[in-house]
Write a structure and sequence with these properties.
Order of helices and strands: HEHEHEHEHEHHH
Strand content: 5-15%
CATH class of the largest domain: Alpha Beta
CATH architecture of the largest domain: 3-Layer(aba) Sandwich
Number of strands: 5
Shape: globular
Structural class: alpha/beta
Largest sheet: 5 strands, parallel
Number of helices: 8
Strand order of the largest sheet: 3-2-1-4-5
GO cellular component, one term: plasma membrane
Number of domains: 2
Protein name: DUF218 domain-containing protein
CATH superfamily of the largest domain: HUPs
Distance between the termini: 24 Å
Helix content: 40-55%
CATH topology of the largest domain: Rossmann fold
InterPro entries: Cell_Envelope_Assoc (IPR051599), DUF218 (IPR003848), Rossmann-like_a/b/a_fold (IPR014729)
Organism: Planotetraspora phitsanulokensis
Radius of gyration: 17 Å
């Protein structure tokens, strides 16, 4: 396992990395939604944003996936909540949605969770892994179209993020998988369509040809 991106792949990985960053400017929102994954940094950054008064309420959403069940055996949302509390977020400022197993369910179940609490936000911040931003945005626009959405992730450079995760192959596979979902999910009714520049599509196809296929659907 290496935490270094191979030199011959660096340009293509960086092209996809930049494409998935929505480059949204954080601003105060009604609620921050931390999307569950293997990356505990999502909960860390959600806590940092809360402490900067970016939102008064946090929802952590996520059950388990094959990639998270060992690390978060009680569910992603539960572990995220505990981590955020350890970082100083008051427990009363956190709701959890512990059933979602994909991004579509993250959005739909979070919406229902807030509805159950009588909370109807107009501006939502989605906090995710950096390469999940574009898919999270497209999914939210499909299943929660009445809200304005801002996407946010820890502001780490690509190499620093890979070193933090500790596994370059895993990160590259995940980025390639998310890129495929930008193309495929609108066809399945899971997301709104988004433009993909030619250089992004070419980089994606080269990484698939290089064998980064474990997260393809």
């Amino acid at each position: 396992m290496s935490a270094v991106i191979p030199d011959d792949l660096r340009t293509d990985v960086a092209t996809l990395w930049d494409y998935h960053d929505m480059h949204h400017e954080p601003r105060p929102c009604d609620v921050g939604v931390g999307l569950g994954s293997h990356d505990l940094g999502v909960a860390t950054f959600t806590a940092e944003l809360f402490q900067k008064d970016m939102f008064p309420l946090v929802v952590f959403s996520g059950a388990n996936a094959p990639t998270t069940v060992e690390r978060f055996p009680r569910g992603e949302a539960v572990h995220y909540r505990e981590h955020a509390i350890a970082l100083g977020v008051p427990s009363e400022a956190i709701l959890i949605e512990p059933r979602a197993t994909n991004t579509g369910e993250n959005i739909q179940f979070t919406r229902r969770r807030l509805d159950d609490e009588g909370i109807h936000p107009s501006l939502v911040m989605l906090i995710s892994r950096p390469y999940q931003q574009r898919r999270a945005y497209a999914t939210c626009r499909k299943f929660w179209p009445e809200v304005e959405v801002i996407c946010a992730s820890r502001p780490l450079p690509l190499d620093e993020y890979v070193q933090d995760i500790g596994d370059a192959d895993r990160v590259i596979n995940m980025i390639v998988g998310d890129t495929q979902r930008i193309l495929e999910y609108p066809k399945r009714g899971f997301a709104i369509p988004q433009k993909m520049p030619m250089d992004v599509e070419i980089a994606y196809k080269r990484l698939v040809a290089a064998g980064y296929t474990t997260r393809l659907i």
